[in-house]
Amino acid sequence: MTKTQKAQIVSALTEEFKTASSVVMCDYRGLVVSDLEALRKLARDKDTKVQVVKNTLATIALNNAQMSGIDIVDTNIFIWGNDAIATAKTVVEYAKANDKFTIRTAYIDGEAADETKVRAFATLPGREELLGMLASVWMGPVRNFTIGLDALKRKKEEEAA
Description:
Oligomer: single chain
Low-confidence stretches: none
Shape: elongated
Distance between the termini: 89 Å
Mean pLDDT: 89
């Protein structure tokens, strides 16, 4: 790989990491190509990105993106996205399906995080779930009002009969 190719990779990753709300590093040793393709498909479905990057290039890109405090060693695959919860859910869901895939460390919402924090983020409700909860709360008074009107209508009909 030439110096210009390395510089291009570092600049592209730096831009990606700057806009990402979370970056998770996982060990993928022992996975075959079909397993990695399954991870990429799952990530694509949840609007996250996956890439295997050399540790030195990833370290430079992370430092350029103001994400320091993470030690990068051994073989790593990087998963990142704009939604920290979706990224965490992607990683945890795939880790449950594959014993060889392990979560190492992460950078979530401006700070370094370990595996337990990534797993905690994965248990939080996602954006769509939160919007559904909000809609339910907003519709509660309207629902109660219509139930009350229906009950009043039935009572008036029973009294008239």
